[in-house]
Amino acid sequence: MNHLTFRLRFFLVALVLIMILGTFAFMFTEHLSLTDAFYFNIVTIATVGYGDIYPVTQTGKMLAVALILLGTGAFLGVVAYATEIMLSRHELEARHRKMHLIIGVYFSEVGTRLLSICAQADPGLAEFREQLAIKDHWTERDFQQADKSIRPHAFKADEAKVDLAGLHEFLASRRQSLVSLLENPITLEQENFTGHLQAVFHLTEELSARDDLVNIPPPDHKHLGGDLNRAYNSLVRQWLPYMAYLRHNYPYLYSLSVRTNPFNPEASATVR
Q1: Contact (CB, 8 A) for 232 and 124
Q2: DSSP three-state, residue 56
Q3: 3-state secondary structure 184-218
Q4: pLDDT tens, 237-266?
Q5: Which domains does the chain have, with CATH numbers?
Q6: N or C: which end of the chain has fewer CB within 10 A?
Q7: E strand intervals along 49-205
């Protein structure tokens, strides 16, 4: 529970208690019926003052003053924090949309191609290909089940089957795009995505640091495989939520993404 929600609940409870206690106090001090006491309590807190009912005892007058001060304060607190929560939610939704837009740009520029490269070199992918074969008719439940099934699995591409020189050329050509994404302040709010970008940057730097990406000794090949699979695993776990978001918000982009699924070796953007 964040501090805004806590404060809203506090003022709501205070307002309800003031209304209940004030109603019974007016019944006792002013000898009013339950309906009249409740009505008088409300118009007092709201500072409306129609004048049809008013306190005639000294105790009732002091009670009315206390209700105006406490009740009005509690009511304004409820309105203020409810409004702030509503505005915060709108702002959060807007930031989520911007974040998914950034992730969408990443997949268009880098992510989908990188997934395809890793998937083609993953000897254990056949076991999970069905879970990652996203269809047009998938529901939120389907995405949840797919995420649950792959969560404990460590995806591993065989680095010996990856054209490291070609991978380096591709990532180096997208370096400026990656830098722009990482510099965006909204990106920093999504720790998982930021962590993935850092893994891709590290992989790019490791590849750039070698003069020869063809004749690599086995220990170094294994080291580069670790860097590659770190980026691969984090990317898979970014891809599924992104596809679910497209399914719910952008059906036309979702349709293209399904047709170009990097885990489908027969994927094609052509509609058949």
Answers
A1: no
A2: coil
A3: CCCHHHCHHHHHHHHHHHHHHHHHHCCCCCCCCCH
A4: 999 999 999 998 888 899 999 999 998 878
A5: 3-89 (1.10.287.70), 92-259 (no CATH)
A6: C
A7: none
